[in-house]
Design brief:
- The protein is α+β, with helices and mostly antiparallel strands and 115 residues long.
- The protein has helices at 3-9, 13-34, 39-59, 97-103, 106-112, and strands at residues 64-68, 77-86, 89-96.
- Helix 2 runs antiparallel to helix 3.
- The N and C termini lie far apart (38 Å).
Length: 115
C-alpha cells in the first residue's frame, strides 16, 4: 500500500478535523445561498456528519470525545472536543444529539462521551 493510499484510508486526526471545519463552512454558505433543503446543503451537512463519525470511531475517546454543549442555542448538540488543540481549534464542530443517536450505537455514544 502506498503512503497516499494509507493516508486516504486512515487520515490523521488533524486531517479529519481540517476536513470537518472546511465542510462545515461550505454547508453554512450553501444554506445561505441556496437554502437548507437544497441538494448542496443536504449533501454538505451529511458529509460533515460522516466525517465526524469517522473521527469519533477512529480516535475517540483518546484524542476526541463528545460532550453536550449546554451553551449552544437551538436544538441540543454535542461538541466534538479535542484533547489537544489542532491549530487553534479545541473542537471539531457540533453534532446534533438527535443525529448522533441515529448514526452511532448506544455503546458508541457511551464510549465517546466524557465521564
Amino acid at each position: 500500500m502506498t503512503d497516499e493510499t494509507t493516508e486516504l484510508l486512515y487520515p490523521s486526526v488533524e486531517k479529519l478535523v481540517e476536513e470537518i471545519v472546511a465542510v462545515n463552512h461550505a454547508w453554512k454558505v450553501a444554506c445561505e445561498l441556496f437554502g437548507q433543503n437544497s441538494p448542496l446543503s443536504i449533501s454538505s451537512r451529511d458529509l460533515k456528519t460522516c466525517l465526524q463519525v469517522r473521527l469519533l470511531r477512529s480516535y475517540a475517546p483518546k484524542q476526541v470525545y463528545l460532550i453536550e454543549d449546554k451553551k449552544a442555542k437551538g436544538e441540543p448538540v454535542y461538541s466534538l472536543c479535542l484533547r489537544e488543540a489542532i491549530g487553534n481549534r479545541l473542537y471539531a464542530e457540533h453534532l446534533p444529539i438527535r443525529i448522533a443517536q441515529e448514526v452511532l450505537t448506544v455503546q458508541e455514544l457511551e464510549q465517546f462521551k466524557i465521564i
